[in-house]
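S1.2 Input.
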Amino acid sequence: MLILGIESSCDETSAAVVKDGRELISNTVATQIPEHRLYGGVVPEIASRRHIENIGPVTRQALADAGCTLDDIDAVAVTYAPGLIGALLAGVSFAKGLCYGSGKELVPVHHLRGHIASLYLTHPGLEPPFVALAVSGGHTHMILVEGYTSFKVLGRAVDDAAGEAFDKVARTLGLPYPGGPEISKLAVGGDPSRYKLPDPHTSGEFDVSFSGLKTACLNIVNTAAMKGEEIVREDLAAAFEQKVTDILSRRLITAAAEHSLPACVCGGVSVNGELQRKCRIAAEKAGIEFYAPDRKLCGDNGAMIASAGYYEYIAGTRASLDLNAYATMEMSTTHE
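S1.3 Output.
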């Protein structure tokens, strides 16, 4: 079964063709990062316009790379929540148009369910249940994946998502958007012990909080500026990355061990080498398996939506042509 997946929730326009939920046939991505970097972050209005411009060519390229036409596709899967509402609407409207013109069935996909499905494309033998940490610019969720379309949220960020915190601290350090990769590069060789950062407290066992860490970094920079002192940016970047990855890896492996299940990371921040390294070491000590997506599937992409769409399709999930987009939505919500 061939599923065409369309993703446009933030600043990546992507379309992909996936066979039977596991085999990646094609995956085309048009990134807007260079343009948004000029403004220090994603500008929603610009993102929406670029999606409208890119969605057609990207989809045609994905079909061409797959060596097929829309006639060969069994269904069209599209991200409909959560994300930037204008960006989502660009993808949803295009997918509905494709289905209207071709008679194909439309499958709505939750963005975080898509990130989890990226694991299936990288690890063909991985099957639920497992515990997944979905961590990106807009989301940090600890999820018990009970089945391909059944999920339970064990914990989440109570304030800033991890990726958002990386972006904000990077801006404080004068680094360009997106901040995560820039902080990681700057942190290489840095001394994380130079700056002491707080250990955020949360009431939920698997909840996380990064707003305090972000503020602590800002205060260090501002205090040094008022005193006419220079901060060692490499050391502060290393301290921040160490603290965030310590928190995330510790929560994930604890949750997986408590449920006696494999541990997985996915989402844009899962590409962070330090996070994966700590998770692998902790998982090995705990005697549990650890999985992460291929680097090219960590960020937003149509392949993960096509994979998730396959399992939603098998489960009977369909949408009519009045499907709307939603800026926020719990991942456990079942589309009616």
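S1.4 Remarks. Residues 233-259 form the longest helix (27 residues).
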